[in-house]
Every structure is written in structure tokens, then in C-alpha cells.
Specification:
single chain; 185 residues; alpha+beta; four-stranded mixed β-sheet; 38% helix
Length: 185
């Protein structure tokens, strides 16, 4: 009987130790893409992903011109993974520059965008803060002009996003994958 009590106590003690170990492993282990794995982030600023016509100068009575399309790329520092998913963040701003749009936002360097990119990169993602072309006529007295120029601005934004995705896929396929991305994610 004493032996049975001893074996039962030993078995319960081992079970308790096993549960503690499993709990600690689950509690303290970090999972890529969910938890912060990295403490430092590399930022490639003002990477040119394309060039296209902007109509923004027409708001100032000038001719349309071309502009470089820029993005900032955030990657985890020291990561050796070469098939990371890409998270693309687009700023708010109504297709007008900051302040002119009535807000303090409107660019790829907005505080919220930068912080979100940093957080995604620390989890192991490649995060992209994408800039896009701006320009439409919000001050026109003609509702049709306001509507059509805003729709055209949104369409240009879609074109810019597609150009950025093509650029990222091209870096993976033709430039040796400098950002360690998986073109399908």
C-alpha cells in the first residue's frame, strides 16, 4: 500500500512537471508572423517602384508632369528567411497631400503607417508603405467635375498599387530577391 501511494505520488508529480513545462513552452515561445520575433527593423526609404503621370500640378494651373512612385520597405533585421509574406499599407488622405486634404495624414511617412510597418516587420513580414499619385479637384463648383476627378484619382491609386505589386514580384524573379519575399504571398 505504501508502494502504491509512492507510485501514485510520483506519477502525479511527473504529470504536474510535464504540464508546467508545456505551459511555459507555450507561454514563452514566439511564433513567427504572430509574435514579435525581431527587435530591429531595416528600412529602405524612397524605393522607386515606377514612374507615371501626375495631374496634381493642374490644381495649381500647370501642366501635368511625371513623378517617381515611391515606397518604403521594412524588413526584419537579421532575418535569413527568403519566403516572407508582404504586407502592403496604404495611407489615408483622399488623394490629396497632407494638410491640403484637411488631415494630418496623406503620405507613406504618416506616424500610424510607420508604426504598423515596424510592428509587421518585427513579426517577420516584409512591410511596404506605399506612396501614390495624388490630385483631383475638390474645390470645383461642379459636382460632376468633383466626382469624375475623384474617381480618376482612385483609379490612379489602383494603377499605382498594381505597379508596386509588379515591382515586388520583379525583385523576387529578376533581382535576386533582395527583400526575401514570397511572390505568391
Amino acid at each position: 500500500m505504501l508502494l502504491n501511494n509512492y507510485l501514485k505520488l510520483k506519477r502525479e508529480t511527473l504529470l504536474l512537471i510535464l504540464l508546467i513545462v508545456l505551459y511555459n513552452q507555450k507561454t514563452y515561445s514566439q511564433e513567427r508572423y504572430i509574435d514579435d520575433i525581431f527587435t530591429d527593423v531595416n528600412i529602405d526609404s524612397d524605393v522607386v517602384y515606377g514612374n507615371n503621370t501626375t495631374v496634381f500640378p493642374t490644381l495649381l494651373g500647370q501642366m501635368p508632369t511625371t513623378q517617381d512612385l515611391l515606397m518604403d520597405i521594412y524588413t526584419p533585421s537579421g532575418d535569413t528567411e527568403t519566403n516572407r509574406p508582404v504586407v502592403i499599407l496604404l495611407h489615408t488622405g483622399s488623394f490629396l497631400p497632407a494638410i491640403l486634404n484637411g488631415q494630418a495624414t496623406g503620405g507613406k511617412s504618416d506616424n500610424a503607417i510607420v508604426e504598423q510597418c515596424m510592428q509587421f516587420a518585427k513579426k517577420g513580414y516584409v512591410a511596404v508603405a506605399m506612396g501614390n499619385r495624388k490630385g483631383w479637384n475638390p474645390t470645383s463648383t461642379d459636382q460632376n467635375v468633383r466626382t469624375s476627378t475623384l474617381l480618376q484619382a482612385a483609379y490612379r491609386g489602383i494603377q499605382d498599387a498594381k505597379a508596386m505589386v509588379r515591382f515586388m514580384r520583379m525583385t523576387e524573379a529578376a533581382l535576386g530577391n533582395p527583400y526575401g519575399i514570397d511572390k505568391d504571398k
